[in-house]
């Protein structure tokens, strides 16, 4: 093709057709420019297609991650609510000091409230991989990127009263350690290998009475209830973030179909 153009130019010059030569040269330049623009457009289109495929792949992985995160936080919110409800029931027993009030449930309140602790472990692999590889800009939605950054920031920041939460848990374990097994039901005692049967009602009344008179339990129990309520609020917040991110991801995928 280039040889053909060169031959045409040479023929025009040899025939003294200067005007036609310049017109032809300009036309040739225009054709070359058009060719370059077409090539650039094709290249840009190919790059755009690659980026869109990469974005769809990342969105699908984020969808999988945050579907799981939604389950994780939904589950931890239910469990955390269960812990707080049992702590509050145990506090009520301490305030009433009635030896017959919910006496058969005190063990449940202790083990599922005072002694219980749950921690959520969310999935952040896809987002962290994007940050590490510098591929965050593959995502076109600024709102989605902002929500992901907020979610990651909350996770990395952690729960500010985590140490206090663990200290209160240890304090309560220490206060109950000499009598804790006395409140286990028969099935649980058998499961963990405690062969001795539960004590009779008179002895149980004495244990419960001594429990209610212990001045070192109610305060840490009340504090634990407050701290665990703060953790519950954090988990509810993270569940909201997970829902928002999942909705944004699914909306982006829907637009790209």
UniProtKB/TrEMBL annotation:
Q: Which Pfam families match?
A: DUF6090
> Has the keyword Transmembrane been applied to this entry?
yes
What is this protein's record name? Uncharacterized protein
The UniProt record lists the keyword Membrane: yes
Q: Which UniProt keywords are given for this protein, alphabetically ordered?
A: Membrane, Transmembrane, Transmembrane helix
Q: What is the lineage of its organism?
A: Bacteria, Pseudomonadati, Bacteroidota, Flavobacteriia, Flavobacteriales
Tell me where on the tree of life, at the top rank, the source sits. Answer: Bacteria
Tell me the InterPro entries matching this sequence. DUF6090 (IPR045749)
Where is the chain membrane-spanning? 21-40
